[in-house]
Specification:
Layout lengths: L24 E2 L4 E2 L6 E7 L8 H9 L4 H17 L10 H13 L5 E8 L3 E8 L5 H20 L11 E4 L3 H17 L13 H4 L4 H5 L12
Antiparallel strand pairs: 1-2, 3-5, 3-6, 4-5
Helix pairs in contact: 1-2, 3-4
Amino acid sequence: MNCKDLAGTAGILPAGSLKQPKGWHCRGYKPHFDSPELLQFITFRLSDSMPAGLIEAWKQKLKLKPKQERETELRSRILKYIDLGHGQCFLKDDRVAELVEEALLHRDGEHYRLRAWVIRPNHVHALIEVMPGRQLHEIIHSWKSFTASMANRLLGRVGPFWYREYDDRFIRNVQHYENVVACIHHNPVKVRCCEQPHHRRWSSAWRLNGRFVEKLSEPAGRMPAVPD
């Protein structure tokens, strides 16, 4: 399963939301879609996981391509690059990885439903369902602000910990959901960090001890009705 195939499209806002979602909005080099009750595939990474200016250089090389093709190719390049494990990879430290996993699980079932996740040396993949009245950017901000402060304290360092941006793609249908779960769980295997998904300690596959296919293959909650 290749993460570059997981590009999504915008869905329909659910009626009766407790808090008005922000809809399409721009936070740097790409737009984000933020709506309650939608399943979202999230990737966020450490601040030193990519050299400054590399994304802009790629954007210049891709600028003549059609918009959708350009965005898909850019996302693919970023995911491939961070999979190589550049930077200081602070998440290799089990203390830091545990801290991040605890942050992901802390509001699970309250602000969101955490469907699948994996913590890699320099980035995190997660699949969540945002609960009514909550906004995606607020959830991610809470994860990043708390863990950045605590991780810097653990590591005896100062300065930025996470890269300010994150990547989010909303889930189109059941097949897309299953593809994303497979991508998340097999990500460490793909880059030869482990032989089986459940061998990766900081992941939902490990917590389910290899039973993740049965447990996570069926999405809970309402799937957005999006045409192919």
